[in-house]
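Q: What does the assembled structure look like for these inputs?
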Amino acid sequence: MITSFPKLLGATIVTLKLLSASLFFGLFLGLFFAILRLNKNIFINKLAYGYSYIFRGTPLLVQIFIIYFGLGQIEYLRTTFLWVILKEPYWCAIIAFTLNTGAYTSEILRSAFQTIKPGIIEAGKSLGISNKIIFYKIQIPIAIRQSLPAYGNEIILMMKGTSLASTVTLMDLTGVAKYIISTTFKPIEVFIVAGGIYLFMTFIIHNVIKYLEKKYSFQQ
Amino acid sequence: MELLAFGKTGWGDELFYATLMTIAVSITAMLVGFVFALIFTPLKLSKYKTLNLVGNFYTTVIRGVPELLVIYLFFFGGSGAIMYVASIFGYYEYIEINAFITGSMAIGIISGAYSTEVFRGAIQSIDKGQFEAAKVLGVNKFVQFYKIILPQMLRLAIPNLSNVWQITLKDTSLISVTGLVEIMRQSYIAAGSTRDPLFFYSFAAVLYLLLTYMSMKLINKLEVRYSRGY
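A:
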């Protein structure tokens, strides 16, 4: 139990790297699609809806497998520069996670945008503030505050999702845990250590989000 | 298209049975989850701190640890644990548990943690007056729960339970690591033998989408049924 701890701790860094990279890209992707969802054009709207529907309706495991095993099959892709990225399981995992969290984030942000009271936007307009500034300085900050609790859940879900990277040969926390279990046959001890690390991360994320919620709450 | 043909030439029938397996595992897991939820929801709502602690421990640990890790625990630790229990009763032969049971138990425990939270939320949002009225009328606790609280709770719980169902359905894809032949495992086998992973994994994605779509339709009907009178 004690000997496995340093190994698992080392693997935690891989997990954290995967998590932060996919959350970073996913947030932008989510914001982009959330804005598309608010577009009045039905075609663009449906496109964004389709994206989030597909990625939320299928398991993350399928998405990783399509990207890691499936895309490599297309001969044309192998000749382009994309292949440099797609042959690495690390980047494939990040792409899959980004697309997945992007879909959930876009839904979270969309509902946050829609709950903004029209009066706030009208107030901005009547003050003669341009639409662009209303969007960036009024709508986005309010939407971010509104979506914090839901986004906190999404971060935790994504942290658990990174464990699937172990299925495409990446040695993240779960990958190393599985390796140690299958070599030492001590599932319970390893589960306690690895699970403990995951729980610790959940605990930290939970508290950071709680702190942010308090900091940016409307009633100050 | 010929890859999906039924019979010996294609993978159609295999994938069809794999889909049925996915549905079977999901339903079993969901039911196992309900059993866990029925045990742990009262614990979480109990007056006693110790019982609260047990309930919170269950939901926090299971919801904070990756599903895959829980499955590995069951997969590698399951038969060991059963054999340990059996050895107490004087049975020392090797026992192997069926992948279906391991998988549905693992997913069931995960699903149960989410269901517990849903039930807790639903019960807490029932008006206090309902409990008091039942008490005043002298209804015993059992009838109070089954005839008064449960019907109201279900109405509030169904939308959230539908989310739990979606999570459970998608989580069953993870059981493929234990070798149970459900959609994911079957696609993996088919992709390996035909060297056409793109097609088979995309097809798996379509199957999952179909399942989530159809279950959404069904659940919406249930929702309408249970909100009669509101």
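Chain B has one domain: 19-126+160-226.
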